Structure formats: structure tokens, C-alpha cells
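One thing: could you explain this record?
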Amino acid sequence: MTDENADIETIGSRVAYENRWMRVREDVIRRRDGSEGIYGVVEKPDFVVIVPVEGDGRLHLVQQFRYPVRARHWEFPQGSWEAAPEVDPLEVARGELQEETGLIAGEMSYAGRLFQGYGYSTQGYHVFLASSLSHGQASRELEEQDLVARTFAVAEVERMIRDGEIMDATTVAALGLLRLKGLL
């Protein structure tokens, strides 16, 4: 991975850990000044975050237990298809929305792509606004069996962010991006 314009050159790489959801790579690097070091990189496929909005402006959130932080948190529906990373993000967004909430979007607007944490990971995510919603049956995966779905007014979601009730950075960024683009 040599790029003559890069500030950091990769001179060696090894896989330190790998499972079906991620790979952790350790790279030996050379900085612009010639000094060497090690950089750890988490490789994960992109995911989608969906902001479902009802005709009256209420937003759908889901809450589930997040094992790494040992707590339940509210967030927008989100997910990836690790086994099929080549699938169009729009198809993944439609699938994840229906799977987690039972909602089917008549319209999906693409807002953009952001990175989850580009200081340590390759993973990005695609933000979609789902509208013209119809209600169907959720088909949650085993890991989502504790998931709860509920609607909130936009002002309530903003209050929950301000008060630290919503702590998911993806949810906060998606809402901010949609607000800045005038889509919500």
C-alpha cells in the first residue's frame, strides 16, 4: 500500500485477529520524517443508518442492549449485511428497516456517507431518510430479540441527545446531517 502522496507509508502488515464481523490489522508504518511505528486498523464493512419519519414528523427509534457498553440505548435503525458487503446500500437500508421495525418505506432519500471512526477503522455508513411509511411485520435476527421500537417527536429526540439519553454517535450524526441538508 504505497501512495507517493501519503503522509504515512505502509511497509508491512499482518492480520492480528479476524472473525465474521471484523478483521484487525497491524501495520508497520513509516512517517514522512522517516520514523517508523505501528498502526492498528479495524476493517469492517460499511453499514446503513435509516431515519424513518412518519407523515406527522415523528421519528422511529429502536432500543436494544449493546453488549460492549453493557446498557440499552435508543438509536436509529442501522445494520450491515456482513455476508454480502457488495449489496447496494439502498437495498440494505430497506431490508434493515423492515427487519428491525416492520416498516416499509415508500420513499428513501440518500443523505450521504460518513465514517464511523476513521482514526482506527475503515468502516463508513450510509445515511437514509425513510418516508411514506407503511407498517408490516418485523423479522428480527436472533441478536435483535430484545429490540424495542417506538416513535418520538423530533424535539424529544433532540432533548434526548442534549440530556445524554441518546449516546449513539451515528444517530446524532445522521440527525445532524439531515437537519443541515434541510431534509428533516
Notes: The two ends are 40 Å apart (CA to CA). The mean pLDDT is 94.
